[in-house]
Design a protein that fits this description.
The chain is mainly α and 213 residues long. The chain folds into two domains: 67 residues, no CATH class; 117 residues, Cytochrome c-like domain (Cytochrome Bc1 Complex, Chain D, domain 2). The protein contains eight helices and no strands. Helix 5 packs across helix 8 and helix 7 packs across helix 8. The protein starts with a helix and ends in an 8-residue tail after the last helix. It binds heme C.
Length: 213
């Protein structure tokens, strides 16, 4: 029986039958299954299943096997850019050693974590960063030599300013530059504090950081 259903579905998609309708009902069915099988526990409430506009537009496009429409992508980028909060004291940098610790640390936000406690950045799950860490994911590009490759020799110089601002904005809300980015929105979703983001900025951009050796 199962086989018949999946064969029928495979034929439908092979024939290109209303792809979007199919994706929308598949999406609704998925939401129903998720809602039925998740339960709220600790800080992990049912609100975790609610998609915001950007998530919804990107996952609907993805489910129908398409990239998001140009106008939706532009809208997501623009509205995401507006969410970026710049450092309140005008300082973009902290301590790269603490940045490395945060990049290594994937803790936080699970039902058993204390609500309000600081989270890790989980960066190595998706990126190569310092060369000494050989265990990393490859969903995102390598960030080894991030500052060096972009010619940053003095983080406080006027020439470094555009890359400094881009990197801060990217960490705050990656969708400001890439509408359907799969990178977490660390600042926008209050996953990391401004102080933590500054440590990560130093890790990526400081010429003294192991990343740029
Ligand atoms: C779930 C995977 C994931 C995690 C976790 C993640 N990233 Fe990313 N990141 C990506 C992907 C995918 C890209 C490339 C697509 C894009 O630009 O959005 C990216 C791009 C970037 C870029 C831009 C690179 C460029 O050349 O423009 C920077 C900087 C970055 N990530 C830093 C970090 C830092 C720092 C952390 C940890 C705080 C982190 N990322 C955590 C997936 C991730």
């Amino acid at each position: 029986m199962k086989k018949t259903i999946s064969t029928a579905l495979a034929c439908m998609s092979a024939l290109g039958l209303p792809g979007i309708l199919q994706a929308e009902s598949a999406d609704a069915a998925l939401q129903k299954t998720l809602t039925a099988s998740f339960r709220a526990e600790g800080q992990a409430g049912m609100d975790r299943l609610v998609q915001d506009e950007a998530n919804r537009l990107c996952s609907q496009a993805d489910a129908s096997g398409k990239t998001v429409r140009d106008e939706d992508a532009a809208h997501i980028r623009q509205s995401s850019f507006k969410t970026i909060a710049w450092p309140t004291d005008g300082q973009f940098f902290g301590d790269f050693k603490l940045g490395e610790k945060l990049a290594q640390d994937g803790r936080g936000k699970t039902w058993s974590d204390k609500p309000g406690s600081e989270n890790g950045g989980n960066c190595y799950n998706c990126h190569q960063i310092s060369q000494s860490e050989i265990s990393y994911g490859t969903l995102g590009p390598s960030l080894y030599n991030y500052g060096k490759l972009r010619g940053v020799s003095d983080i406080n110089s006027a020439t470094a300013k555009p890359i400094v601002e881009y990197t801060w904005g990217k960490l705050w809300n990656p969708r400001a530059f890439n509408a359907c980015s799969s990178m977490p929105r660390f600042g926008h979703n209050s996953l990391l504090t401004q102080a933590q983001l500054k440590h990560l900025m130093s890790l990526l951009l400081d010429p003294q950081s192991p990343v740029n050796q």
